[in-house]
Amino acid sequence: MKRLEDVNQRLEDFSRRDGLTNVYNRRHLDQLMRDAVDHARNGNHPLALLLLDVDHFKQINDRHGHLAGDDCLRAVARSCRELVSGSDGSVARYGGEEFVILLPSAGRDVAARLAEDVRTRIERLAVTIDGNTIPLTISIGLHCATPDNLPEHAEQLIAAADEALYKAKQAGRNRVQLCAAS
Hints:
By secondary structure, the chain is α+β, with helices and mostly antiparallel strands.
């Protein structure tokens, strides 16, 4: 019976993970966001969400190939996981070259510091493929919600962070942009 429970637990965990990067997948992220909004609302806690996008990812794929692009995505995911470990934060692949870091109890200062740490870590990464070092940078949109301005729907967290991400890219990439409403 214990063996069956272990197998079921592994299958459940497997269904929550992105196959390439081993961080949470989009489907599980949706549930985590709903839970985080409920937790923030019920416990009167802040909540932060970082939306990360690998800068010029299409060029990486075009120039170095999709396997190299996959290696870059795994390196970004690994760096995010390492920086979030030890906190109540979660890392998920949102799609393509986009990732989300969800921080269920983090205020603006903590979230902004983590966002800058992630940006700096990625900028310093050395992903080497066939003797070629691939420079990586990311742009980050950061949305921080307080108990006074929690969104009605979890999807609004992403929408606000996406707007900030767009501004980060427009301003030259490789930067953190705080959402105007934060």
